[in-house]
Design a protein that fits this description.
The chain has helices at 15-25, 36-54, 61-73, 78-92, 98-109, 114-128, 135-147, 153-161. It is mainly alpha-helical. It has one domain (15-161): TerB-like. The chain is globular.
Length: 169
């Protein structure tokens, strides 16, 4: 995947952030055949990651490397990688309905399920990875919070847990 901002600084993916997101996503992805649950998980998770990365209008090299490293860490098969990359690009180009995709995920895995929790946590950690959450990223997170079935206050509670309180950054 190419970054949409050629002037963005290239840097290595922060291992701690990658480890946190990998941990958050847990068993959603695995090697081997892509079944219906994994297909939905890949399409929605990487689509939302792409949309979140584009939320501030610039997909940095860091974000692109992060997504590539995430695919590596989960040992995605060639077919699963293709789904993930295509989904990330659809999200990045804003060719997905963020709320509809989140609802599709909830419909597949169930409100309050561990899969929904992991996806939400991964999105929050990616948003907070650069140590600031921009207004458009916050708007994205507000929409996803509701669509995933969480109460509105859950966003601020969870952001404070990972070190990003209610102050706009």
């Amino acid at each position: 995947m190419a970054a949409s901002d050629p002037s963005a600084k290239s840097g290595s993916v922060q291992p701690s952030v990658l480890a946190q997101v990998r941990s958050a996503l847990g068993e959603l992805f695995g090697g081997g055949a892509v079944g219906p649950d994994m297909q939905v998980a890949l399409e929605v998770a990487f689509g939302l990651l792409g949309a979140l990365a584009q939320a501030d209008s610039i997909v940095t090299t860091h974000e692109t490397e992060f997504v590539n490293a995430l695919m590596e860490e989960h040992n995605l098969s060639t077919h699963a990688r293709r789904i993930a990359k295509e989904s990330f690009e659809r999200g990045r180009r804003r060719q997905i309905d963020i709320e509809a995709e989140a609802r599709r995920f909830v419909a597949r895995f169930g409100k309050g399920s561990s899969e929904v929790e992991r996806l939400y946590d991964a999105l929050l950690r990616l948003a907070a990875a650069d140590e600031r959450i921009r207004p458009r990223e916050r708007e994205f997170l507000v929409a996803v919070t509701a669509a995933l079935g969480f109460e509105a206050h859950a966003l601020e509670v969870r952001l404070s847990i990972i070190g990003h309180g209610s102050a706009a950054t």
